[in-house]
Each structure stands twice: as C-alpha cells, then as structure tokens.
Amino acid sequence: MGIIQTIAATTFVYSAACVAAALIFARLCLSILLHPTRLFWKVKRRDTVPACLTDPAYGIHGYLPIEGVKIHYVEKGDRSKPLMLFIHGFPEFWYSWRHQLKEFSKDYWTVAVDMRGYGDSDKPAALEDYKMAHLVNDIKEIIEALGHETCTLVAHDFGGAIAWNFVMTHPEMLDSYIILDAPYSPSNFRILTSNLFQVLMSWDLFYFQLPYLPELTFRAYDMVRLKHLFRGSTPTSLSPITDEDLEAYKYAFAKSGAFTPPINYFRANGFSLSPPKSKLKKDIEAPGLYMFGEHDGHLVFDHLWAAQSYIKNLKVQMVKGANHYVQQDDPEKVNGLIRDFLKTKKPKVEKPVAASS
C-alpha cells in the first residue's frame, strides 16, 4: 500500500473498531443493569484438569522446543507412519482436533499442537513474537522436530491463515493440505472491506485491534463468550459442544492474561495475512482441500469459492448445516470428506458441489 492508502486503511480499521467497542460496551452496560447481582468480571477458578484433556483415547502429551519457545502437542498412532499435523484457530487449542486425532491415527501419525500463546505452550510477551513469519516458521520447525520432512497439514480458522502462508512458502514440505474456514486471497483486507455486509460479519477482527477491551469481553461472565461461539446463539449445531467440552475450553483460558497472546495474533498481523510476493513459490503441486461450514457466519460465500482461481490442485467443499467450527460441529461429515480426499489426492479444479447432509 502507498502512504495515502495505508492512512485510509488504518483510519477505517480503527473507526470500525471503535464503533464495535461502543456497541459492545453498551450491551455490557445493559446486561449489568438487567442482572445487577451477577459479577461480569468474575471468572471461576479452575484448578482441576478436566478429565477429557487427559483421556488416553486422544493420545499422549509431549513438548517440542522450537525457535525459543516450547510447544505442547498431543500425538496418537504409529510414529513410523506419515505425519498428519493439526493446527487450531481462535479461540481454541489442541482439543479442537479430538475427533480427527482418533479417526486418522490408524493410517497416520496424528499430532495436534497448541500454537505459541495457547494452552500449555509457551506464551511470549512481545507483540512482535506473533508476527506471521514466526508462526509459519513454527510449523516448519515442528515438522522437523517431529523427525519428518513432509506432512499432511490440517488447519482451521487463524491456523488456516498460517497454513495458507505455509502452502505458499514451503510447498515442498507438504504431501497434501486441508484448510477449514479460512479462505485464501491475495488481499485479505480487500475481502474484509468488500461490502458493508462483509464488514459487519468481520466486526470482531476490527475490534481485536484495540487494547484491553477484547480480553475483558472474553472474560466477562465466566467466559460466556466461548459458549456463544461454539454453540451459537441458537441451537442449530449438528454435534453440539458438550458441557465437558466447554469446560475444557474455559480451563484452557481461565488464567489471568490467557486471552492476550491469542488476540495478539490479530494485533500483530492486522489484515496483512498473505505472504509477500517475494516469498511466494510459484509451483504448488501438493493437492489441497478447502472446507467451510454452510452457517460459518464470518465471510460472504462468494469469497469462499475464489481460492480455486488462485491455486491449482485445490478442491473447495461446503459442509451443509455446519457452523464455523466445522470439524467439531459435524466431525463425521468432515472426517469423511477428508478421508475421501486423501484417497484420491488428485482433486480436479472444477465448480465445487456442496456436501450433502
């Protein structure tokens, strides 16, 4: 961007952020007035690890030292088999891949990580430590630290944005890749500001640029925002997050300051989520699958199909009835689509057809 464009974009982003903050603050004040006996800032103390997080059915826990940080991971399956690496999004951690860790461990060595700043992984304090270059390099070092040269990379949400950057800069390290609910575009900012409806759907991305307030919002009323995200405001989930699952997420984010590193992913990168043109590698031979839920609610559908026009060997698939957290909302359908894709690994670039429910 030129100087004038940069100033205009910055003004737009922070104006949108302030509008979102004003609306959220008004809603919070109304909630306090309607429920004066509830302490909106109170977060329940959680000292006991939920049983589901230590369930051996999901795998064995371990740690990897990489690029100055220690990464926590959960592994399942035979280490001699091809590596399938899972990268979570926001606000998640390794547990988001519980259904896939078990499903694919018969044919792959499945490994789900807590990205830096999340879960039991190290949480650097500097905003600079969450720049996209560090996050992409983490993936490279994780693969190498696990003793592999290549992997099948599976990623969701902001993890998908990291994965797209990895696809564009390290295609030689991929056997194949599956990305969920994180569309690729050469210009993320252009997509997110393409029309008023899209701006409204992306309000949280603007809001996250502000200091302090996003963390306050997520901690309010014992992190009720997590419940709203994973279950939705209406009971439309295909495979609803259980109370035990929800408690696992609350446990992961219960400590003071736990939301700041994840939100710093957005603050550190803004809307510049695509790699510089100088870093792009033209030949991407690895087959890819991009999936999104029909009720994702974060992006206009027209943008979701566009990735095929930029990347060869990519198939785009909609999962009917599913929400943004598609791998948890309809794990059976998602696992089936992944397995079908892995059987062929030669997707045709054609007009995508929605998955049947």
TrEMBL record:
Domain AB hydrolase-1, chain residue ranges per copy: 82-330
InterPro entries: AB_hydrolase_1, AB_hydrolase_fold, Epox_hydrolase-like
Single GO molecular function: epoxide hydrolase activity
Stored Pfam families: Abhydrolase_1
Keyword Transmembrane found: yes
TM helices/strands, residue ranges: 12-34
Alphabetical keyword list: Hydrolase, Membrane, Transmembrane, Transmembrane helix
UniProt family annotation: Belongs to the AB hydrolase superfamily. Epoxide hydrolase family.
Protein name from the UniProt record: Epoxide hydrolase 4
